[in-house]
Amino acid sequence: MNLPNKLTVSRLALTVLFVLAIFLQVPFNDTVALLLFITASLTDVFDGLIARRRNLTTNFGILMDPLADKVLICSAFIALVERHMQAGACAGLPAAFNIGQHVFYPRVAAWMVVVIVARELVITGLRLLAVSKNVVLAAERYGKHKTVSQTIAVIALLIPEAAREWGANVFELLKPWWSAVATVLLWVAVVLTAFSGAIYLWRNRRIYLSET
After folding, report:
1. Strands 102-104 and 97-99
2. Tens digit of pLDDT per residue, the chain (212 long)?
3. What DSSP state is assigned to residue 139?
4. Which residues neighbour 1 within 8 Å (Cβ) at sequence distance 6 or greater?
5. Secondary structure of 78-127 in HEC code, one letter for each residue
6. How far apart are the C-alpha atoms of 79 and 88, rounded to whole Å?
7. Which of 61, 188, 58, 210 is closest to 126 using CA atoms?
8. How far apart are CA 1 and CA 6, in angstroms?
9. Where are the domains of the chain?
10. Which end of the chain is more exposed for a tag (fewer CB within 10 A), N or C?
């Protein structure tokens, strides 16, 4: 297994560790979760870069690289929904609120995750259909922007939770304005996810409409 493929596999392993970290009630678990997510995201950057520069592209990488990305992003958003739902048992919570040892800023709504997961499932299904017809669908610019926006949004949502562990001074510094930043980044990710999926389906409609 070459280096890019090892990085891809490591992203799956880091995803498992990230999910464990985000739910384990141990000291600095949110900070560890944040660092694991950032590390996993960087492997996505470097595996593709190394594969292209060293001409190490393989069928395994073509299949597993986008799959590992989807597993990481979907796992992160689903985990955040679970965390926020646990905290949201109390009614009338403001944009930034404290529950137990954790602070939550914009809540990730379940419908947002439905949009993200549904988009990935639909596009994956479309690509499988295209492969069955010996057609290779290349990744598009909007899809890459979508992935970047999702990654940044998850990091933005994890930072205030981790900041609680860095000391009261750091948290109080972030608290007044980070809620707005994270909210904007979350909505950008959701809108880009839906838009990029719609564009991809429209541009490749010949694949699924050819036999209707």
Report:
1. antiparallel
2. 888 899 999 999 999 999 999 988 888 999 999 999 999 999 988 888 888 888 888 878 877 888 899 999 999 999 999 887 765 544 344 444 444 444 445 678 899 999 999 999 999 888 888 878 888 777 778 888 999 999 999 999 998 878 777 876 766 677 667 778 888 999 999 999 999 999 999 998 888 887 65
3. P
4. 9, 60
5. HHHHHHHHHHCCCCCCCCCEEECCEEECCCCCHHHHHHHHHHHHHHHHHH
6. 14
7. 210
8. 7
9. 3-209
10. C
| Amino acid (one-letter) located at 158 | L
Which of the listed CATH numbers 3.90.1150, 1.10.1660, 1.20.120, 1.10.8 matches domain 3-209?
1.20.120
